[in-house]
Write a structure and sequence with these properties.
The complex is a heterodimer of chains A (about 280) and B (about 425).
Chain A (H helix, E strand, L loop, with lengths): L8 E4 L9 H6 L1 H16 L8 H20 L9 H23 L1 H4 L1 H4 L8 H30 L13 H23 L4 H15 L7 H7 L4 H5 L3 H13 L6 H26 L2 H4 L1
Helix pairs in contact in A: 2-7, 3-4, 3-7, 4-7, 4-8, 4-9, 4-12, 7-8, 8-9, 8-12, 8-13, 12-13
Chain B lengths: L4 E11 L7 H13 L23 E12 L4 E6 L5 H8 L7 E6 L3 E4 L12 H11 L4 H15 L14 H13 L5 E4 L8 H17 L3 E5 L3 H7 L2 E6 L2 E7 H12 L13 E9 L5 E2 L1 E3 L4 E9 L3 E12 L4 E6 L7 E3 L2 E9 L7 E10 L4 E14 L24
Parallel strand pairs in B: 3-7, 3-8, 5-6, 6-7, 12-19
Antiparallel strand pairs in B: 1-2, 1-4, 8-9, 10-11, 10-13, 13-17, 14-15, 14-16, 14-18, 18-19
The chains are: A mainly alpha (about 280), B alpha/beta (about 425).
Chain lengths: ~280, ~425
C-alpha cells in the first residue's frame, strides 16, 4: 500500500496562491467568536461608563463638525438637519475606517501570537471586522435615536426605499476595509512606511469622501476635481446610506455597482496577498 | 505503519542584518531572477549555519536538508546547542513559518506548545481565558466545555476562576496556561522549552502529564529542552541538531551522550610561561580510553595532567578539587592522601590518576587543579575545568533531587 495516501497534512515550501483553506477557517469559527467577545469585553473592563464609550466618540465628533463645518464654514448639508447629516456620515465612515486601520496593523499587533501558534491567520482580520460591527451596531443605535428625536421635533427628512440596501452597504464597507487593510498589512510586514501613511491617510481620505459635504455640493463647486470624490468607492456607499435613511444624496446603481466592483477586486487581491505573506511574515516582522 | 511525521529535505533560510528599505531593490532582483526562471541569487546552496564565522552572503541556513521520520507514539527529544535550529524546526512543524525548501508530511492533529498562555488577555477572567486560549490552540468550544473541570483541577485555580488573570501570581498563570495545553486532544504534541517556568513540583506534574500523553495514549511527542534529565525521562528517541543539520538520530541516551561529547571541547589551560612549573594540559579519559568531558555515572574515570617544568622539582603533590556548579566542594583527589609524591623532570611530565567509579549524580561539575607541595603552590588552576556526568540507562528509576545530595552510591535492598 502506498504510504503517502495516509498522510492528512503536509507542510511545503511553496503553496498555491489560491489555496485559501476556507474549511480550516470554518473549523476555527469558535475562535472567531471568542476573539470578538474578547475585544468587546476587554474594551470596557474597568471603565465606569462601559459600552457607553462607544457613543461618546461619534457624538462629540458630530458636535464639533456641526460647529466647524456646518456653522463656521457654512457647508451645505442638502437641507438636512446638520447633526443628522454629519452623524450619518461619521457612523458609516467610522466603521470603514476602523476596519481599515485595525486590519492594516494585524500582523504587527499580533506578531506575538502569530509567532507562537498556528491558526488560520484570516481569522484575525475577520474578527476585527466582526468586533467593529458590534461597535457599529451600537453607534447605529445612537444614529437611530437621533433620527427619532428629529422626527419628533418635525425636521425635514424622509426614509426612502434605498434603506433596504443597508445590509449590502454594511457588507461593502466591511469588505472594503478588510480588503484594503489586508493589502496594507501584507505590505507593512517588510516596509513599515505604509503604517505611517495609513493613520493620516485615512484622515485625508475622509475629506475625499462625502462625510462632511454632499456630493452634489462638491460637483457644483469643483466640477473639475469632483471625479476624485466620485471614484472613491466609499462615496457611493455613504451617499446611498444617506439617501436610504435621510432621503438626500446622489444615488445611482452605476456608482454603487462600481463600489461593489472595487470592493470585490480589493478583497480578492487582499486575501491572496495576505495568504502569501502570512506564511513567512514571522521572519521579517 | 507509516511514520507519523516524515521530514524530507527540509531547509530554512533567514536573512541576516537589517530588513528594511535596502531590501526593496533586492526583492526586485529576486523577483527578476524568478521571472527568468533562475535560482534565487541570495540563497546560495551549500552554506551552513556557523554562527561564529562571517559568511559572504547575509543569508543563513538555519536548517539545511533535514531528513527524519518519527513513528507514531514515539517521544522524541530534540537537542542541540543554542542556534542549532531546534526552534526553527519546531516553528516549521507548528506551521508558524513556512520552510524555504522541502516538505513535511504527517497525520493527525498537531498541538504545538511553543509558549504557554499564548493569547491570554490580562483583563479577562481565568474562565474566559481558558476558552480563548483553548480556541487559539485549536479546540472547539464544546471540547473545552467538556474538559473545563479537569483543566481547572489540574491548574488548581478553582477559587480564582472568575478573577482577571492579571491578578494571578505568575505561578498560577503558568499553571493555568499549561493546564489548557495539556488537555488538548491531539495525535502529535510539540513542546518547546516551556517547562523552564513554574515551580519544581508543577514541572514534575507537567512532565508526568506529558509522559502519560506519549506512553499511555500512543501520542507522538516532540520535545525541545536543555534539561537533559527531563529529556531522558520523557523521550525514547533523540534528534541532535548541529548548525542546522541532523548530526545524530537514535535512542535518547546515545543522543544525549553524543550531544555532550559534541558540546564541550576539553577546555585547555592557558600556558603560564612566567612560572617555573605550569600545567599545559588536563583531560578526562573514560572507560573506553577516550578523551572526554562527559562521564557516565558509575564508570571508570581517569584524570590525566601534563605539567611542564623548567627545573627538576621534588616533592610535588597533585590535587583535584571537584566542585558543583555552585562552587561547593564535593570531594578532593589528592596524591598526598596516599603519601604519593612526584619528582618532576625538566620538560613535560604526565601524571595519571583514576577512580574506579564516578559516584557523582548526573550534573555539571568543575575540577580545580593544584600542583605543589606543603611549602609552595607551583600552579593552581582556579577557574576549573567543566565536565559532566550523565545517567546510565536502566539502572536507577529516579535520581536524587537537589535535596537528596550529590552522590549516587550503589546500594542493595533485601
Amino acid at each position: 500500500m502506498e504510504h503517502k495516501e495516509e498522510y492528512n497534512w503536509t507542510i511545503e515550501a511553496k503553496a498555491s496562491l489560491f489555496d485559501l483553506r476556507i474549511n480550516e477557517i470554518w473549523a476555527y469559527r469558535d475562535l472567531l467568536w471568542l476573539l470578538v467577545r474578547r475585544d468587546f469585553v476587554s474594551f470596557y473592563k474597568q471603565t465606569i461608563l462601559g459600552p457607553l464609550w462607544f457613543f461618546i466618540q461619534p457624538l462629540f465628533t458630530t458636535i464639533i463638525f456641526t460647529f466647524i463645518f456646518g456653522n463656521l464654514a457654512g457647508i451645505s448639508t442638502d437641507g438636512l438637519p446638520k447633526p443628522l447629516f454629519y452623524m450619518a456620515g461619521i457612523t458609516a465612515w467610522n466603521y470603514f475606517a476602523d476596519c481599515l486601520t485595525k486590519t492594516s496593523t494585524v500582523f504587527k499587533d499580533n506578531a506575538g501570537i502569530f509567532g507562537k501558534v498556528y491558526f488560520p491567520r484570516l481569522i484575525m482580520p475577520l474578527s476585527i471586522v466582526a468586533s467593529n460591527l458590534v461597535r457599529f451596531g451600537v453607534q447605529m443605535l445612537l444614529f437611530l435615536l437621533m433620527m427619532a428625536y428629529y422626527y419628533f421635533i418635525g425636521a425635514k427628512f424622509n426614509i426612502t426605499w434605498a434603506i433596504s440596501l443597508f445590509p449590502i452597504i454594511v457588507i461593502l464597507m466591511a469588505l472594503l476595509g478588510l480588503g484594503a487593510g489586508m493589502i496594507i498589512s501584507a505590505m507593512t510586514t517588510k516596509y513599515r512606511d505604509l503604517a505611517f501613511l495609513v493613520s493620516f491617510g485615512v484622515q485625508l481620505l475622509m475629506y475625499a469622501t462625502t462625510v462632511i459635504y454632499p456630493l452634489s455640493e462638491a460637483i457644483k463647486k469643483y466640477p473639475a476635481y469632483a471625479w476624485i470624490i466620485k471614484y472613491n468607492p466609499m462615496t457611493p456607499i455613504i451617499e446611498t446610506f444617506r439617501y436610504g435613511f435621510l432621503g438626500e444624496g446622489s444615488f445611482s446603481w452605476e456608482s454603487l455597482g462600481y463600489a461593489c466592483g472595487v470592493t470585490l477586486g480589493l478583497l480578492v487581491f487582499g486575501v491572496v496577498v495576505f495568504n502569501k505573506v502570512e506564511r513567512n511574515f514571522v521572519d521579517t516582522i | 505503519m507509516p511514520p507519523a511525521i516524515k521530514v524530507e529535505n527540509l531547509s530554512k533560510a533567514y536573512q541576516l542584518g537589517q530588513i528594511g528599505t535596502g531590501t526593496i531593490s533586492r526583492d526586485l532582483e529576486r523577483w527578476y531572477a524568478r521571472v527568468r526562471g533562475k535560482e534565487d541569487p541570495f540563497l546560495r546552496i551549500g552554506e551552513s549555519n556557523n554562527q561564529n564565522t562571517r559568511s559572504a552572503s547575509d543569508v543563513v541556513w538555519s536548517l539545511k536538508d533535514i531528513n527524519f521520520e518519527i513513528e507514531q507514539g514515539d517521544a522524541v527529544g530534540i537537542i542541540g546547542r543554542n542556534g542549532a535550529g531546534k526552534s526553527t524546526l519546531l516553528k516549521i512543524l507548528s506551521k508558524v513559518t513556512a520552510p524555504t525548501t522541502g516538505k513535511i508530511s504527517g497525520k493527525g492533529r498537531i498541538a504545538s506548545l511553543l509558549e504557554v498562555g499564548t493569547g491570554f488577555h490580562p483583563e479577562l477572567s481565568g474562565r474566559e481565558n481558558i476558552f480563548l486560549n483553548g480556541a487559539i490552540l485549536g479546540m472547539r468550544k464544546k471540547e473545552i466545555q467538556r474538559k473545563l473541570e479537569e483543566i481547572v483541577d489540574f491548574a488548581g485555580i478553582e477559587r480564582y476562576l472568575d478573577t482577571p488573570v492579571k491578578r494571578y501570581s505568575s505561578g498560577m498563570y503558568v499553571r493555568l496556561a499549561f493546564a489548557v495545553a495539556a488537555h488538548l486532544e491531539s495525535e502529535i504534541l510539540i513542546v518547546d522549552e516551556v517547562l523552564a517556568v513554574g515551580d519544581a513540583e508543577f514541572q514534575k506534574k507537567c512532565l508526568g502529564k506529558m509522559g502519560e500523553v506519549s506512553k499511555g495514549e500512543g501520542r507522538t511527542v516532540l520535545f525541545v529542552s536543555h534539561n537533559m534529565t527531563a529529556v531522558l525521562n520523557l523521550c525514547s528517541k533523540g534528534v541532535m541538531l548541529k548548525n542546522g543539520k541532523v548530526s545524530f538520530f537514535g535512542n535518547i541516551s546515545s543522543t544525549i551522550e553524543a550531544y555532550h561529547n559534541e558540546s564541550q571541547t576539553s577546555s585547555l589551560i592557558i600556558p603560564r610561561k612566567n612560572k617555573k612549573v605550569y600545567i599545559t594540559d588536563f583531560y578526562l579519559v573514560n572507560d573506553q580510553n577516550i578523551k572526554t568531558t562527559t562521564i557516565s555515572l558509575h564508570s571508570y574515570t581517569k584524570f590525566v595532567i601534563k605539567i611542564f617544568s623548567k627545573v627538576a622539582k621534588q616533592p610535588v603533590n597533585v590535587g583535584y578539587g571537584i566542585d558543583d556548579i555552585y562552587e561547593n566542594r564535593l570531594f578532593t583527589l589528592f596524591s598526598k592522601f596516599y603519601g604519593k609524591t612526584y619528582s618532576l623532570k625538566v620538560g613535560e611530565n604526565i601524571i595519571e590518576c583514576y577512580i574506579s567509579s564516578m559516584i557523582l549524580k548526573p550534573n555539571n561539575y568543575k575540577i580545580k587543579i593544584f600542583v605543589g607541595n606543603d611549602f609552595e603552590t607551583l600552579d593552581y588552576y582556579e577557574d576549573g575545568i567543566n565536565f559532566k556526568v550523565v545517567p546510565r540507562e536502566n539502572v536507577f528509576l529516579e535520581l536524587p533531587d537537589a535535596s537528596q545530595g550529590s552522590l549516587v552510591l550503589n546500594h542493595y535492598w533485601s
